[in-house]
Each structure stands twice: as structure tokens, then as C-alpha cells.
Amino acid sequence: MNGKQLERVYCPVCAAKFRFVEGWKQGSTVICPICGQKLRLKRSSDGWVGDRPEKGTEKEIRERVDEYARLHGYVFKDMKEELIQGLFGKNSRFGDFYCPCRMEHVVEYMCPCKPTRGGDVERDGKCYCGLFWKKT
Ligand SMILES: [Zn+2]
């Protein structure tokens, strides 16, 4: 038998798996350490998955971007509200919070997008949109 420390949780926002922490259980609310999404744990036939308890709501995307910035020590600038409005627009037109500055609506571009999670902010000082900024 594998110990719990080897288990992973699948995050539907960043499509990645992160480490299951001892003490978590069915229904626990946790934060994805990769994208900042708030998840409710559910045991599926494929293992642990996180549900999005506030999927598609303003609360969800605001909490996610704030949490992501907090996790990485990033800051926001004046255009934050405009970009949040852009994310709302994407959600109403395309069904999820895709990057407001890109034309493709694919899982890789769910905010925070894969390039951002891959180090764009560290390299360029900001993400593609200018939502997340490296602290100077
Ligand atoms: Zn995630």
C-alpha cells in the first residue's frame, strides 16, 4: 500500500496534480499551490480531484488571482480592474476565465495561464497581460 504522502490531487484549472497533504479528507477546502484556485476535495475512481465550489463566479476569479499573487509574491497595478472585467467577459462568452489578452480559449490559457505559471513573470517582470507583476 502507498502512503497518503504519495497521493496527488488533480486541479481542473491548471490541469496539474499537486501533493495531497496528510489530514485532508473528502470535502476539505484547499488551495491549489500551482494556480491559487480554491478546491473542494472529492475522491473519484481516478484518485483525488478538486471541485470548484464557486465555479464561474466573480468571487472565484478574484480569490484565484489574489491567491496566486500571494503565493508568488506578485503585485497588481492600475489595470487590474480592467483585466478582471476582461476575465468576466471571457467567462460569459466562452464559459471560463480565459486570458483576456489572447484569442485562444483553451485550458492552457485559463488565468493564471500556463506561460505565467511557467515563469513569464520572473523573466519579463510581468505576465502577458500585465495582471501579475514581479515586485520591484
Ligand atoms: Zn491549479
Structure in words:
By secondary structure, the protein is of the alpha+beta class. The protein folds into two domains: 4-51, no CATH class; 73-134, Ferredoxin Thioredoxin Reductase (Alpha-Beta Complex), CATH 3.90.460. Helices cover 29% and strands 20% of the residues. The protein has four helices and seven strands. It has helices at 58-72, 80-94, 114-117, 120-124; strands spanning 8-11, 16-19, 29-31, 38-44, 47-51, 74-75, 133-134. The protein has a five-stranded mixed beta sheet. The longest helix is centred in the middle third of the chain and has 15 residues, at 58-72. The chain is globular and about 40 Å long. The model has no long low-confidence stretch (mean pLDDT 95). It binds zinc ion (ZN).
At CATH level 2, the architecture of the largest domain is: Alpha-Beta Complex
Continuous helix count: 4
Task: Report the count of strand segments.
Answer: 7
The global form is: globular
Overall CATH class of the largest domain:
Alpha Beta
CATH superfamily placement of the largest domain? Ferredoxin thioredoxin reductase catalytic beta subunit
Number of domains: 2
C-alpha Rg (nearest Å): 15 Å
